[in-house]
Design brief:
It contains 17 helices and 15 strands. β9 and β10 form a beta hairpin.
Length: about 400
Amino acid sequence: MKKSASKEYRERSVAAKILELTQYYPCILLTGARQVGKSTLLRHLLPEGMRYITLDDFQQLDFARKDPQGFLEAHGTPLCIDEIQYAPDLFRAIKMKIDADRRPGMYWLTGSQRFHMMKGVSESLAGRIGIIDLYSFSQRELYGTSVSTPFAPGNAESGLCMEAVCPLPELYERIFRGGYPELTKTCIPWYDYFRDYMQTYVERDIRQLTRVGDETAFVRLMRSAAMRTGQQLVYSDLARDAGVAAKTAAAWISILQASGVIELLEPYYVNTIKRLAKTPKLYFTDTGLCCWLAGWRSSESLRESNYAGAILETWVYGQLMRSYANAGVKPILSYYRAHDGAEVDFVLEEEANIYPIEVKRTSTPKDNDTRWCRRLPVASWASLQPPTVLCSATEPRPLPFGASALPISAL
């Protein structure tokens, strides 16, 4: 490990994008799962004169719910409101304030429940708000630099974080631990942290903001989903494990997705090819939480298990998404699977270029590892680019057919 965790504040790559959008939008909304560092980040960046209010404060929450306009009048602008999902009526009141006197940087908002917030945003603040997603720490932020350059296969070596290159056992220790800020700055035991995290998540977010009903079954579904990370989403399997109806399982997956715990990766699609997968794949956004839910208790046992490939792919997905999200960009990312067995882990589309990406544990990928990448169907207007293989090599190196092998730990 080249850089160890410290108790000091760690710079977040997305900070530059927040400050940039503040110059143009009257309102900024920072979203992400619970405890990924939203409040800490905004408080660190808080401009001089901006007041910070959290709706975790029950008195402030009661005020905001009973009298949204009075709440905003009392606190003035510029104002940072943390956990705004607890008082969704504030969105309409904020719209009225912005429409009356529109200025950049009037409001900063955070929230960890997109399914409540996005409705308020779409109905009240469309065109008035800049929305930024925050994940738990990326590997770059923890072991390299806080730059916000997206991973670009077309110029991949320039975007690699070579300071973070490490042997496979150390990489699995990083994967096992995850990126939640509290785990990087304290000595709290890993198991205890996620046990408390789950209790808080279920009691605060699930119980207060949704109508799950059977919380025990909901946690069983989360555990079942964790054991299927990196796989195609089959609601009937999750429903069977949780002991609920498939319709209920689908609704609960939507809750996990909306609260930033999981994401769904849609399949690659070309109009002229009909026999392709149509089911999304499920990925946890933080591998530490995923490992805890799936029942792993050490990185060594994780690395030697049949689960090792799926969790490595999950980690790669998360690092790819972080590299784009931290630059304020939404990538066009998918996976490819055909009925004849052809499969490509990730397909990245940029402009008219199609970049196939394979994830391999080996340090010496073979020609055969890129065979499906080279045969990936593309639309007539697109250009298929040489494959990228993310593997356990310690240095970038060329492969046949124009492919490249890159150190997976340098993402």
